[in-house]
Amino acid sequence: MPTRDGIASGLAAAGYVADGELATAISLMAYLKRPLLLEGEAGVGKTAVAAALADFYDTKLIRLQCYEGLDQSSALYEWNYQRQLLAIQAHQGKAADAIEDEIFSEKYLMERPLLAAIRQEKPPVLLIDEIDRADEEFEAYLLEILSEFQVSIPELGTVPAKSIPHVVLTSNGTRELSDALRRRCLYHYVDYPEPDREARIIQARVSGSGSALSVQIAHMVQAIRKEDLRKRPGVAETLDWAAALVGLDVQNLQDKPELVHETLLCLIKTREDRARLRPEVVNRLMGKVA
Amino acid sequence: MTCCGTPLDRQEQDAVSELLATKLAAFTRTLRDNAFAVGLSEASDAARLLTTDLVRRPATLRSAFRQLFCARKAEWDRFDGLFDAFWLGKRVRSRSLVSGGTQPQNSPSLKSLSDATAKGSQEATDQVSAEGEDNHAADGEGRMEGASRIDAINGVDFRKLSNPQDLALAHEVAENLARAMRIRMTRRDLERRDGYRIHLRRTIHKAIGQGGVPMHLVMRRKRERPLKIVLLVDASGSMSLYTGVFLRFIHGMLDAAPEAEAFLFHTRLAHVSDAMKERDAARALDRLSMMAQGAGGGTKIGECLADFNRQHAARVLGSRSCVLIFSDGYDTGEPSQLGEEMQALRRRCRRIAWLNPMMGWDGYEPVARGLQAALPHVDLHAPAHSLQSLADLEPYLARL
């Protein structure tokens, strides 16, 4: 079982500043061979976990982005219909069985993420992003694959897994997931990072951001999240904002309040929220974090 | 394994393992008692974790157990308290089901209604389905009496149904009506005949015998997802005469539509779908009366909607959702807030219908300031004071 600290430092090397609990979750994933379900608000860095994990294991990241109406053919495999039609024309006059064997062979099969993930020699990280957007039917099907790790293709037979991928699922909670899927997975709720961790994330990801500025930015973003906003800024927004401030050569937020206000467009993404954060509100928040 | 630095011998180790196994079994039982779905595989994985280094510090074991045993945020938030209470002997704070609330008290109006219903369902009347669909009731006489009574109360304002039998009957009918409506809505969904796509794989199979010419196109039906209904019910004092019947209507709706969600509001908002999933309507009402509170404490519709928009909207609303608000619109909060929150709600769903029992009254004008602020954002403002008015909703709900 990889140790918690080993994982935390490995993820840090991959540019992801994890808290202790998440490191524990990842070590449990390896030890208990269960998928990990990450739930949390948009922009807290759920997807980044999978990317860092692939770096950590030095393996491929295979991503399946879910959406409403996602079905097996786009998630698992698809036959190359155009080539099949051409092949049927080319083999005119042959017996139907022979043609069938020919056109439903490996040559005409197109891998989609799920099939690709179980056919890798080295276990990849399989990221199933926003599983809550897919429908219940697909969820049930996914559950089957996650417990069997083999896929049956009617025309080809059963494809067993060459290796068992590290599976990470993310959900924004737009739909209630089934109990069966939840129980199959380890669960970790990803919250917005604490200010000191967010400051470390800024330092790790934005070159040129000194520690004093990072701490200021992290506390400021924290204060903005506490305001009653429609869209609270996520970690990605924080990083954009930090990069903008560093690019504008801001050393200290207190020195350039007008620049702070102008660059808020990196953080605030709706008109109402923009209207709510009037200059005097921003100045009040800055006074708090000084 | 060591204890206080001294290695344990074999026998001691076994004793410790056995003790831990017993303790773990008790802990999983505690979790099950607290509504965690803990299966055998979780329990055996937890036992494996007890043999690793995680045991050295309670905090690491706790976070490992938390990730293993929890399956949703509500459990995630409660787990540490339960763990500490069980393993470390700390006191656990009790939680209430009402969001933002302290302790729910019993609401007299709902309580008496649920009692009346319980009595009513013991003197059971027969099953009635809406709008002249086939009745499957057994013997003629009872049915006739029931049916004629129903005709008699169909158009009567719920306020005027005073005797317990009539009220119980109205409850039954409301519930059956909701079920029938729901079933018809689904059926209508199935009959929509647009959105075919070609099922390529099957078409190719068919084309092999014809030299690759796809003579027979195999079609794939586009699946229709049913309209999702979200019900927000005003349970304040001014609505008490109607709440019982509405709740039965909603109970029927939820019973037939697993994807529907229901909320009660008065001075606060309570998510009641789970309580309403009780098969037995009387028990469901009982559970609700435990949640409902603040009758006569005024209604803060704006605040409750704000709560709904913040806490629940993202999860329960989608582009195919229809929100039904059962309320008389008497709001003791700020009208401007109600307007804003209605606007926010409007952006998140397909349609909003405001069902107002007062509209059935002669000479009623919607002049309450809260209602005035809300109505511009509403697609339908309709009466809901009698069985007939509830039945009239069906065509509107079935239209997507």
UniProtKB/TrEMBL annotation, chain A:
Superkingdom, natural source: Bacteria
One Pfam family, short name: AAA_5
Cited InterPro entries: AAA+_ATPase (IPR003593), ATPase_dyneun-rel_AAA (IPR011704), CbbQ/NirQ/NorQ/GpvN (IPR050764), P-loop_NTPase (IPR027417)
Every AAA+ ATPase domain range: 32-196
PANTHER family assigned: MAGNESIUM-CHELATASE SUBUNIT CHLD (PTHR42759:SF1), MOXR FAMILY PROTEIN (PTHR42759)
Protein name: MoxR family ATPase
Automatic annotation (TrEMBL), chain B:
Region of interest called Disordered, as start-end residue ranges on this chain: 97-143
Pfam families: VWA_CoxE
Matching SUPFAM superfamilies: vWA-like
Origin: domain of life: Bacteria
UniProt feature, compositional bias: Basic and acidic residues: 133-143
Compositional bias (Polar residues): 97-128
PANTHER family in UniProt: BLL5662 PROTEIN, BLL5662 PROTEIN-RELATED
Name of the protein in question: VWA domain-containing protein
Organism this protein belongs to: Peteryoungia desertarenae
